[in-house]
Structures are given as C-alpha cells and as structure tokens.
C-alpha cells in the first residue's frame, strides 16, 4: 500500500493524536493507588454505584432498542411526510449539552412538567430523582446513537429480500421479524453497544434530572465527580479505573462477538 | 379460459409499459426482449411489487390488480435468487409454507419433499453462501414452488450461471416447469432459454408487445429487427405486389410466396451468395454491394454488406479467400427467390 516515506506533515500530527488520546489513560494508571486498591474495590459505596451504573445502562439500552429499532425502521422504510424533519430532530440530543438535556427532561417529565404533571396526577408516577429517572436520562442521551446506527444498517440492507418474503406470503410484520431483523442484527448489536457505552458514561443529564443520591441515582460517573469534589483524589482515580476497566472489557467482548461480523 | 389474464400498464417517468398477457393452465410463456424493454417491470407488476398505473390483472378468476404481494399466490424466482442468507436451504424453502399457516414440522416436511424433487436432499442444512450458483437456483425454484403458486414467475433464471451449469440447469428447469400445474411466466433476454423452456413466446420492445406466438412462427416470420437478429434473419418491410415486395428506394425482392399490401421479406444470411461480377440468368435477386465488415461466425465468416439494402451474409473461409474479401470491396450479392420468405405485416 504505502509508497516511499510517510510525509512528516502527516506522521507528526498522527503520533501527536495518538499520544493525546493515550496519555490521560496512562496518567490514570500511573496515579492509581495500587496498594489500597483491593480494599477500596470492596467498599459498599463503590459496589453500589457500579451495580446501579450497570443496571441503569442496560435498562436504558433495552428501552432504546424497544423504541429505537421501530423508529429507525420507519425512517428507513416508510416515506411519511415530515421524515426529513423527524430525522433532523433525532440528531438534536446528539449536539445538545447533556445538562441542557437534563433541564429539558425536568420541564417535560418533572412533577410540574408538560407530561410529568399528568403522570403524577393520574398514576402517581414521578420520574425525577428516582432510579427510573436515571434510566430515562441515559436513554434520552443514548437513543440517537442507536437510531442512527440501525437506520444506517437498514438502508444498507438489500430491500429485495423483503420483497422475496412478501411473494412467499409474509406480512409486513412477519417480514420485519423474520427477514429484516436477522439481516440487520449486526447493525443493531453495534448500535446497542454504542448506546450502552454512551449510557454508562452519562453524567450531565443524569445529575440534572435524577440528582445524586447514593444507592438510588448515583451512578459511577456521578460517584467519581463527588469523590473528586470531596478532595479524595485516590478514591476518584479508583472509581475511574473501574469504570474504564468495565467498559473496555465489555466492549472488547462484544466486539469479538458482534462487531467483527461483515 | 386462461389462468392469467392481464393487461399491465405501468408508467414510470418517460417509460410506459403496456403489455397484454394471457397464460393458460400448465402453460409456460416466455417474455423475451432486449434489456430495458420492461420485462422485469412486467414481472414485478404481476408479483405486486410494482403498482399498476392501469389495465387489469386476473388470476384464476380473481381480480388481483390492487392485492398486496403476500396475498397473490404468485411464486417468484428472482434473478439472483435472493435466498435468505440467515436461513439454511431447508428453512428457506419452508419459509413460504410456514407463512401459509403450516406448523414447523409440516413446513419442514414440505421443504424436504421439494428439496428432494430438485435433488438437493443432502444440502438441506447448508446456508446459501456455501451453495453453488446452480444449487442456489434449485433452492430458489423449490422455495417458489413450495407455496404451490397459481402463477410462477422466473426472472432471468439462468442468467447468473456459468455456461456449463446453465446447460444442465436449463434441461432440469424444463422438467420442473412442465410438471408445474399452474401458469408459468419466464422473463429472459436469452432466445435459447425462451425456445427451450417456453410453449409460447411474447416479445417485448420498448414497453410494448411486438410479436407473440410459438417458436416456429416467430423464427420463421420475425416482425421487428430485434426478433430478426435474435433468430438470425435479414428482415425488410415493403409493399407486396404478388411475388415481388417493393422496399424503400424502389428496390424489389422476389419471393415464391404471394403477398399484397404491407409485407415483410426475410432470408437467412446463409442464403446470400457473393460474386465478383454480376451473375447472369436464373430468376434470383441480385444487387451490387460493398463489403463493410467481416467477423468470425462459428466455422464460417459473417460479412456485412452495404448497398440498396443492408444485409448480413454467411460465407465459407474458402469462398472468402477466393473472392479476396476485405472491407471496401465491391461485389454482387444474390439470393434465390426460393430462399426468400414473404408474409403480410398486418
């Protein structure tokens, strides 16, 4: 592939970019209090925050799959009026600062919000400052990642397989479940992983909409922030390291299993 | 009464398809035409994958013109088969019966029966990607037939195969199509597929039917340049005046047939004899010509001649050497009246 020398004008910034990404991680490892690590790992607050993080990120991913896959299908397969507008609206949470997203969620689903008031008076359900609220905040931020990724997979899939299914007597719903879904499964898995990773790292929308209550809404990123604020740098480093290790391990495992598919 | 009775009108941009088709019970009809003639559009309209802009579509007495594809009982073998890549051969074939309400076991049994009929029992558990082109074609055929379609549609069923497996598959396909009790419509641009597989040919050019009939009629009496080329004949249109047909430019071709009014004249390239000078005697058609092109054609040479009429002629390499043939060479061409066929154009 390469012919002759790599130009310095490309090589130097390329190496610079790599160092820029790796150096902070090296810093984290370098500053880790390895001696007290085992003891800190088993502290109940740490375990609790980790459990909550994994639980809420997984539930948020599930919620995103249930809502996002049909939405992506609509965008990719049905020429409804306003499709372009819908597609543009979906990308808004991507560029919106998560804190603003959290405030927006409060105004919509808060006790006096657009929909929240009705939820509260009719069902007695209130989302802010609950674990369910964490899931909602994470799903709000992560959903666009899933929709965009799955829509791309659907657009790339050959729709003639769906036509073949129709000629064999399959309704549109059966075609979706028996042909379309299996064909785009790798795309959905990739979108799900991306979605889960985004949800796991979510901070701004969660702390604004759900608050920071240990055991209820305090996920790992929130715990890192709070530990750091309280002056316990070692504690913050340990929590960060755990978060890093968990996400890298799970992503690597899923990558081998799903993302390597053609 | 025909099982399929349709007039398919589909407008798409500047293109307009308007073909009338009838196919009887147990009959195989080939829709033959050049690329872009609208053959595949016609097939998609029959399957319900492209909506009709007009006309009608009746299958076994049922009006299907607006019925969605899943309720038509029309089986399709697509050009590149479109076997579901995530299902093995058996599950691909069982897909249709399952959708028709058969249980898993019954559908599997049906699928295995069809795979046996196409001789693929051993490959039932193979995924499509590990099947050869010919095997995939047979699975696709089994899948389409397993729903017991009233109308079976095949889109260029042999086009994706290499020459060797094509020969083999064509013969086998013929056997299965003859056994199919419903109507069969085959779309192809290969005249050989059409001649071997079909009982009747419908020739489509530019979205319209230009000729239809059995193979013998069409090869003997082509009505357009495309059909004439397909069956390898020189074809001209003019006015019949008894044994003579007067073409544009007052050029006259003599035939043994008698025609009056608008008429076609056709003769095979092998009927054209070439001479260095004007031949004398004998009641034949002769005219001065200029050679424009020489190409190999089997064991012979096919030459193209310019003159009052443009014709193709087949000659032996020996004759070519004797005549010192080269582009630009002036010659005399002759065709016997007995080798010229004349027939009415309308």
UniProtKB/TrEMBL annotation, chain A:
It is a multi-pass membrane protein. Keywords: Cell membrane, Membrane, Molybdenum, Sulfate transport, Transmembrane, Transmembrane helix, Transport. It is found in: Cell membrane; Membrane. One of its GO terms (cellular component) is plasma membrane. The chain crosses the membrane at residues 9-30, 50-76, 88-109, 129-150, 236-254. The keyword NADP does not apply. Belongs to the binding-protein-dependent transport system permease family. CysTW subfamily. This is Molybdenum transport system permease.
Automatic annotation (TrEMBL), chain B:
Residues 1-231 form the ABC transporter domain. The keyword Iron applies. GO terms for molecular function: ABC-type ferric iron transporter activity; ATP binding; ATP hydrolysis activity. Keywords: ATP-binding, Cell membrane, Ion transport, Iron, Iron transport, Membrane, Molybdenum, Nucleotide-binding, Transport. GO terms for biological process: molybdate ion transport. It comes from the Bacteria. It holds the Pfam family ABC_tran. Signal peptide: none annotated. Residues 280-344 form the Mop domain. One of its GO terms (cellular component) is membrane. InterPro entries: AAA+_ATPase, ABC_SmlMolc_Importer, ABC_transporter-like_ATP-bd, ABC_transporter-like_CS, ABC_transpr_FbpC, Mo/tungstate-bd_C_term_dom, Mop_domain, P-loop_NTPase. This is ABC transporter ATP-binding protein. It comes from Actinoplanes siamensis.
């Amino acid at each position: 592939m390469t012919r002759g020398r790599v130009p310095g004008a490309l090589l130097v910034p390329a190496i610079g970019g790599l160092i820029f990404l790796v150096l902070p991680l090296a810093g984290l490892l370098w500053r880790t209090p390895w001696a007290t690590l085992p003891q800190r790992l088993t502290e109940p607050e740490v375990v609790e925050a980790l459990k909550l993080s994994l639980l809420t990120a997984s539930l948020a991913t599930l919620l995103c799959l249930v809502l996002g896959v049909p939405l992506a299908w609509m965008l990719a397969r049905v020429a409804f009026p306003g499709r372009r507008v819908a597609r543009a609206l979906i990308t808004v949470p991507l560029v919106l600062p998560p804190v603003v997203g959290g405030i927006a969620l409060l105004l919509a689903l808060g006790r006096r919000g657009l929909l929240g008031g009705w939820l509260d008076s009719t069902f007695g359900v209130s989302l802010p400052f609950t674990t369910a609220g964490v899931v909602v905040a994470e799903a709000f931020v992560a959903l666009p990642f899933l929709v965009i990724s799955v829509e791309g997979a659907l657009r790339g899939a050959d729709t003639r397989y769906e036509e073949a299914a129709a000629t064999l007597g399959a309704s549109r719903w059966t075609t979706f479940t028996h042909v379309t879904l299996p064909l785009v499964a790798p795309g959905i898995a990739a979108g799900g992983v991306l979605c889960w990773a985004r949800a796991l790292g979510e901070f701004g929308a969660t702390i604004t909409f759900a608050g920071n209550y240990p055991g209820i809404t305090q996920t790992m990123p929130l715990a890192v922030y709070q530990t750091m604020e309280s002056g316990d740098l070692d504690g913050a480093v340990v929590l960060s390291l755990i978060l890093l290790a968990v996400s890298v391990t799970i992503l690597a495992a899923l990558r081998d299993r799903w993302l390597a598919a053609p | 009464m025909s099982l399929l009775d349709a007039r398919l009108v589909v407008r798409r941009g500047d293109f307009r398809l308007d073909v009338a088709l009838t196919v009887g019970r147990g009959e195989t009809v080939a829709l033959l035409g050049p690329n872009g003639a609208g053959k595949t559009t016609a097939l998609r309209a029959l399957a319900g994958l492209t909506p009709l802009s007009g006309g009608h579509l009746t299958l076994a007495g049922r009006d299907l013109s607006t019925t969605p594809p899943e309720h038509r009982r029309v089986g399709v073998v697509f050009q590149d088969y479109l076997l579901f890549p995530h299902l093995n051969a058996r599950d691909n074939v069982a897909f249709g019966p399952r959708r028709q309400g058969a249980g898993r076991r019954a559908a599997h049994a049906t699928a295995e029966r069809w795979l046996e009929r196409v001789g693929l029992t051993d490959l039932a558990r193979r995924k499509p990607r590990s099947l050869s082109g010919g095997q995939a074609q047979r699975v696709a055929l089994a899948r389409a037939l397993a729903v017991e379609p009233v109308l079976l549609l095949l889109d260029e069923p042999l086009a994706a195969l290499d020459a060797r497996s094509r020969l083999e598959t064509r013969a086998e396909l013929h056997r299965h199509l003859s056994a199919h009790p419903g109507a069969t419509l085959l779309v192809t641009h290969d005249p050989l597929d059409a001649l071997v597989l079909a009982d009747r040919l419908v020739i489509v050019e530019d979205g319209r039917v230009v000729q239809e009939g059995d193979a013998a009629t069409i090869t003997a009496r082509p009505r357009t340049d495309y059909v004439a080329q397909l069956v390898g004949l020189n074809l001209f249109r003019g006015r019949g005046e008894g044994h003579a047909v007067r073409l544009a430019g007052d050029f006259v071709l003599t035939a043994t047939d008698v025609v009056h009014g608008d008429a076609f004249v056709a003769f095979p390239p092998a009927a054209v004899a070439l001479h260095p000078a004007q031949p004398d005697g004998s009641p034949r058609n002769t005219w001065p010509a200029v050679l424009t092109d020489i190409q190999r054609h089997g064991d012979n040479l096919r030459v193209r001649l310019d003159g009052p009429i443009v014709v193709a002629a087949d000659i032996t390499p020996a004759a070519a050497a004797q005549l010192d043939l080269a582009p630009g060479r002036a010659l005399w061409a002759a065709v016997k009246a007995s080798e010229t066929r004349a027939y009415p154009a309308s």
